[in-house]
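Good morning C.,

I know you're traveling, so I'll keep this short. The sequence:
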Amino acid sequence: MKPTLFVLAAGMGSRYGGLKQLDGLGPNGETIMDYSIYDAIRGGFGKVVFVIRKDFEQDFRDKILSKYENHIPVELVFQDLNNLPEGFTCPADRVKPWGTNHAVLMGKGVINEPFAVINADDFYGRDSFAVLGKALSEMTGKTNDYCMIGYRVGNTLSESGSVARGVCGTDADGYLTTVVERTAIERIDGKVSFTDENGVMQTIEDNTPVSMNMWGFTPDYFEYSEADFKQFLTENMDNLKAEYFIPLLVNKLVNEGTAKVKVLDTTSKWFGVTYAADRQGVVDKIEALIASGEYPQKLF
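The tokens, ready to paste straight into the viewer:
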């Protein structure tokens, strides 16, 4: 059974001021997402599911989905503030979405096979999809046994400023033990550095794995998410800013010994537009990948 790629794109319209400006960074106006879909097809994925906001469904179908239709089956699901478990009602003054793991829950009705989760606007690279596609294709029928791509931190930095990353701890077998969110990571005097919670400057090895929100799950993850989301809502209903993130649940499942998560190494360099100044760098990097033969001039 081929794995499914689940693309978190519900934040998209707001961030780009409508889909019309969905940023074309490739030579023919390709978006970052186009490269992810292309790499997923090469990596053996059999279907793509997008989670978006209902209010830009038509725009999304016309401008985005139409591109992929002859290449891979695609489906849409919708993230909505009011889409909550029975017995819960969204506070009237909440505007912030419920977070990435709420978005993942929206796939429950349409995904019945091992699946990957990615952000729509991150460039993950060819090797990462090949590695994840292979791992997921071997997970059919399994439960409680997940994986994630652990990018080498040195391959994820921005030239324009510091970045926040989830730094991963692993055991001797390469399974995840912790994800610690570190803010203000940057290269100082050639070394990857950050300031810890005590204000002390720490350095880490270039190849330390970090999470860039590229996960591999089996469908049982939906059951855990549903149960845990109820718990989250019970505790956070009045906090209008609280968000239910994927690492919250992953950490919990790992810590209580319910599930294990294999951290998969990749040679891919991650890049994204963290700062406006990053945009040209991304355009240049894509051009360089095309020049080296990693991608064709025109994707679809």
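Safe travels,
E.
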